[in-house]
Design a protein that fits this description.
8-stranded mixed β-sheet, Aminopeptidase, 2 domains, Alpha-Beta Plaits, 4-stranded antiparallel β-sheet, elongated
Length: 392
């Protein structure tokens, strides 16, 4: 689609890549995005937006007020990185021990690019746009932190959109589902309290490792025997900590893990079952447990009307054959907290290189993660056209 907007987007391709590379070089962990937030704040202020820092600790919000009255569109981007030593050999690689290994540098870039373009078109807007730069998505805490700080009270929205670039989908394709996009993602911690003692005299101790091993074994029946076979669900025990020596029965042992599903009720059922099994096994083995849901996010589920709108706009940019629904992805994202409060859509932006394998590029959350920067103008254009379409 060639018109004034496409010409503007084409003129911004180099600056979009420069912006991405700037933020890629300074990744920061959740609630520690100080340099990142400061730079976002500066750029939004330079565009003349009303700006606020500190919603959700390090979150940034910029409000663009249109010329005419109308609804408010919220555009959300996450801004944190991961504790990964980068191994990409890019000229702009991070060297601070953290890495934008999930594409959040691109999300920042596209939201800032849209803000720049739309700030020059505000005379056409019948309504307002709120740009939300959310911290701590990787630890699934930033969205709720912003919400608890009054995000939706201070900046009430009628619609919310966002994107997650995905390097396992080819650049030039866009995935827009009218229902589930990402799974719910809960984490848990189970502490088994026993009674320590000599490894040679287990009869006067209470071995928490035995209890935990039975909890892990019994919990494998939750997905296979308590969840319907056609429901996607995953229960994974990822970390076990306990014990000090081979000949010492530990006082306690801790296990942490995650569970995923595409429905809130399935997510709750798995968590409830895990808690029930843990307690019953502990009772049977004379141990005690402390069961914690550390943090989590519900499934990311789009509103069909908004999804159809984004699909229509995306098809104008990449072609109908390249703007289609995709299979839900089992990762989690606290964009779900936004979508649970405001009708909206989270679309998947294809960002994969055609020759990714020969380049040695890996997928998300890997030290060799990278993506095709040519996705950036596509995502930016979807944001811009979606805003103009909704607020016209």
């Amino acid at each position: 689609m060639k018109d004034e907007i496409s010409e503007i987007i084409n003129s911004k391709i180099s600056s979009l890549k420069e912006t991405r590379r700037f933020f890629h070089n300074i990744p920061e962990l959740g609630f520690k995005e100080f340099k990142t937030s400061k730079e976002i704040l500066r750029r939004l202020e330079d565009l003349g937006l009303e700006v606020e820092y500190g919603i959700g600790e390090t979150g940034v919000v910029g409000k663009l007020i249109g010329k005419y009255d109308g609804p408010t569109l919220m555009i959300r981007a996450d801004i944190d990185g991961l504790p990964i030593d980068e191994n990409t050999n890019l000229d702009f690689s991070s060297n601070n021990g953290n890495m934008h290994a999930c594409g959040h540098d691109g999300h920042i870039t596209m939201a800032l690019g849209a803000a720049e373009i739309l700030s020059k078109l505000k005379s056409k807007l019948h309504g307002n746009i709120v740009f939300v730069f959310q911290p701590a998505e990787e630890i699934v805490q930033g969205a709720l932190a912003m919400i608890k700080d009054g995000l939706f009270e201070k900046y009430p929205a009628n619609r919310v959109i966002g994107t997650h670039l995905w390097n396992q989908v080819p650049c030039g394709q866009v995935g827009i589902n009218d229902s589930t996009v990402f799974a719910g993602a809960d984490q848990f911690r189970i502490t088994v309290q026993g009674k320590g003692g000599h490894g040679a005299m287990p009869h006067i101790a209470i071995d928490p490792i035995i209890t935990l091993s039975q909890i892990i074994n019994m919990s494998q029946t939750i997905v296979s025997r308590e969840i319907a076979p056609n429901e996607m669900s995953v229960l994974t025990f990822g970390q076990v900590h306990g014990g000090t020596a081979p000949n010492v029965i530990a006082d306690s042992v801790v296990v942490e893990g995650t569970l995923r599903s595409y429905r809130n009720d399935v997510q709750k059922n798995i968590m409830d079952s895990l808690k029930r099994i843990s307690k019953n096994v502990a009772d049977a083995t004379r141990a005690n447990i402390n069961f914690e849901r550390i943090h989590g996010a519900p499934p990311v589920i789009n509103e069909p009307k908004v999804a159809n709108s984004i699909a229509r706009i995306s098809s104008l940019i990449v072609g109908e054959e390249n703007a289609t629904s995709i299979e839900p992805i089992s990762v989690g994202d606290d964009m779900a907290e936004f979508l649970n409060r405001v009708p909206g859509t989270y679309f998947i932006l294809g960002a994969g290189f055609k020759d990714a394998e020969s380049r040695g590029i890996e997928s998300h959350h890997n030290s060799k993660f990278d993506y095709d920067e040519n996705c950036l103008p596509i995502g930016t254009e979807i944001f811009v056209r979606s805003a103009l379409d909704y607020l016209s």
